[in-house]
Amino acid sequence: MARRRKPKLAVWKFASCDGCQLTLLDCEEELLTLAGEVEIAYFLEASRAVVRGPYDLSLVEGSISTPEQVDQIREIRRQSRFLVAIGACATAGGIQALRNFADVRGFLELVYARPEYIKTLEKSLPASAYVPVDFELRGCPIGKGPLLELISAFLNGRRPNIPNHSVCIECKRRGTVCVMVAQGIPCLGPVTQAGCGALCPAYRRGCYGCFGPMETPNPASLGDWLLARGMSSPDLVRLFRTFNAYAPAFREAGERYAEAANPDRSS
Amino acid sequence: MPKPRTLTVRVEALARVEGEGALHVRVRNGQVHELRLEIYEPPRFFEAFLRGRRFEEAPDITARICGICPVAYQMSACNAIESLFGLSVKGPLRDLRLLLYYGEWIESHALHVFLLHLPDFLGYESALYMARDHPEWVQKGLQIKKAGNDLMARIGGREIHPINVRVGGFYAVPSRRVLLEHREGLARARDFMIEALRWMAGLEFPDFEEDYEFVALYHPEEYAILEGWIRSSKGIFIPVSSFEEAFEELQVPYSNALHSIVRGRGSYMVGPLARFNLNFHQLSPLAREVAASIGLVPPVRNPFRSLLVRGVEVIHACEEALHLIDRYEPPDHPVEPFEVRAGVGFGASEAPRGILYHRYRINAEGRIEEAKIVPPTAQNQRRIEDDLRKLVPRLLSLPKEQLTWRCEQAVRNYDPCISCATHFLRLEIEKE
Prior knowledge:
The structure holds 2 protein chains of 2 kinds.
Chain A: E1 8-13, H1 19-25, H2 31-37, E2 39-43, E3 55-61, H3 67-79, E4 80-86, H4 87-92, H5 107-111, E5 135-137, H6 144-155, H7 167-174, H8 179-183, H9 199-202, H10 219-228, H11 233-240, H12 248-261
Parallel strand pairs in A: 1-2, 1-3, 3-4, 4-5
Chain B: E1 6-11, E2 21-28, E3 31-39, H1 46-49, H2 58-63, H3 70-85, H4 91-122, H5 127-133, H6 135-156, E4 165-166, E5 169-170, H7 176-180, H8 183-200, E6 215-218, E7 229-232, E8 237-238, H9 243-246, E9 247-250, E10 259-262, H10 272-279, H11 285-293, H12 306-327, E11 343-351, E12 354-362, E13 368-374, H13 376-391, H14 400-412, H15 418-421
Antiparallel strand pairs in B: 1-2, 2-3, 4-5, 6-7, 7-8, 9-10, 11-12, 12-13
């Protein structure tokens, strides 16, 4: 019987730290098995061999932050049957999206020693700002388990089983005592998507939201609660503006407390 | 008169490196006319948006510069801030930091040795192709890598962007029992690495040596990793706070990363070869013994042999980690107390790829007013170009495809982390 053609997997990089694609190479136990199931057709971090498109599954790491990258992500979309954004950069613009909150008028002339050498867009945005995305895998970084689940689901023609409830549920499952209730440590767990296994509370620190907002979160409720317990508006702005600062729910929360911190600047 | 022979080697996207770079070499009549390591990875402006953040955030934010060496960023950031606050982390807390950092060295070196660099020596496009003919070495390499990753995940919470590091120590510390679970994996990783080194020593290494200026941290009591003074093979011996007086950074038009040079002298090399040559006597006895048995004694001036030096450092890291685990008793508190002080703090540590320098100016409220970060790959960038300038004329008899591949291999000698290198464009924000 003729063997079915192996699906072609491609891994692409935009503005990022390489950590999410490294997650694939961190699957030490599964990597060689995976390489037997799919043809790793484009993965520059791991191989100089390049197989031409089209690709069955493209994993996209990094945010879109230069004019060339806009063209490139569109071309990748054209070449890919499924396009999955992996990590906070590709799904929300990443930490580098902090620049999106800066005043950009005349910014370029002020910023560089030799600005003429550099090409960059005003905003660092997720892949979905430019092309349709079939699935978004969250995290800064993504987890090995969810990545393998995603690839496995794709290979078997089903939808990946990735939770979209909050980190709080993971703490309850793990039996971790709530750090906010018991110790008064500010925690984004109630508004952050699960996926990390509630890592930070298990190490007695508050969640800092690296998996981004959960489905239908209520960050204003959490923020106001923290405000009432003595957290300042600028600290709340910082809390929401880290690795998923430009994800809509966190962006709105950041703006809400930025206005509270600087009432005369809001317009 | 013979017609000038022009040859252009162009690698549009370098593979098996972390991040995005290209290589451009133009040769005319056997002379290199143009040579550029072009780093087109877009800048991410870390130094700009660190301004106004609180000092407590620096370890978590700067970790995101690099997914391959996040612990290096966390350690250099903590060093810089703690030195400003007059805080010295000692005893079991320091041991835990060392353990976490050794985990990263083991993981990062195994990744580079087995998955990124070794395929060049055997003529494979990737470790996945190599695994078809040499499955045992790829498997063993992955096992070594896993031992490092497991240790990082245990102490740091996860391998990539650990969540447990903070200024003054940690959020939570492990019990002795859970650390002991890592003994077996680390001992096996050490043994696999010894076995692999004996085999790799028999590979063919291109005949290439240069008179490098090696630069590494020096610590009187250990093979420096966490902290130390900056020392070079040509006479520099300075505290970290004098780094910017001895080295300067230049912006070049074709690269998004700055080039570092020794002021008034030129390019220099940081990383495994520099550490090995300057601090060989401080390696663990077994690491030294294995190195000597494969003919690896300082000074090693052939950058292709960095493959072996990384292996020796893996043995050292495994041995030191085992030693630290054996003596570990959990500290009473996970974090040392400290008070915020305004001023400028300097810090450096030895990332797997070499010295990683941080400087922060912090105000009395604990906000960062200015940050500067110099990663190892930016420091090596000029040196990589110098290597290629010397190497290319000797390789002109090779077919172009082989010449190109050999140039790529020479770049990979430095395990360049381009993601790191690009995020450091100097940012001058004028304040009114």
